[in-house]
Amino acid sequence: MERMDRPVKAVNQAVNDLGGYIRAQRDTAQISLRQLARRAGVSNPYLSQVERGLRKPSAEILQQIAKALRISAEALYVRAGILESRPAGPVVDAVLADTELSERQKQVLLDVYASFRGEDASPGAALARDGVPHGETASHEAIRSDSEE
């Protein structure tokens, strides 16, 4: 019986952490529960239950709450266990903190950034140390220089 209790306890802890996180973000933004509920399009009692860890909101509701708080929906998804946490850094943190970008824009920027960071691993994407694109040989260089004359 104890084995089955572990996942239930983990889920309950995640829901409590999520509710506490939302409450902390609301307090930081100096928004009342009623104001946040109105902005997020949920009822006061429902939001109160989420903050107290009694309800686990859907991804859609989390997105509405994140938008109302002007924070990243990804942060709420990670807290709720919907997404896995990924390593952050100054660029990722800056993109996620930008309130002028939509969630979709943030995701696209982070995807492009990740592709640039992984550029060295992709064949043909980066230049070799000698300045020759990967996959080209010295004979390609010779052909190129002959055709330029």
Automatic annotation (TrEMBL):
InterPro entries xrefs: Cro/C1-type_HTH, Lambda_DNA-bd_dom_sf, TransReg_Diox_bact_type
Entry-linked Gene3D superfamilies: lambda repressor-like DNA-binding domains (1.10.260.40)
Coiled-coil portions: none
Domain HTH cro/C1-type intervals: 22-76
Keyword Translocase recorded: no
Domain of life: Bacteria
Single GO cellular component term: cytosol
Listed SUPFAM superfamilies: lambda repressor-like DNA-binding domains (SSF47413)
Keyword terms of this UniProt record: DNA-binding
Pfam families listed in its UniProt record: HTH_3
GO molecular function: DNA binding; DNA-binding transcription factor activity
Compositional bias per record (Basic and acidic residues), positions renumbered to this chain: 131-149
Region of interest called Disordered, as start-end residue ranges on this chain: 122-149
Protein name: Transcriptional regulator
Organism field: Actinopolyspora erythraea
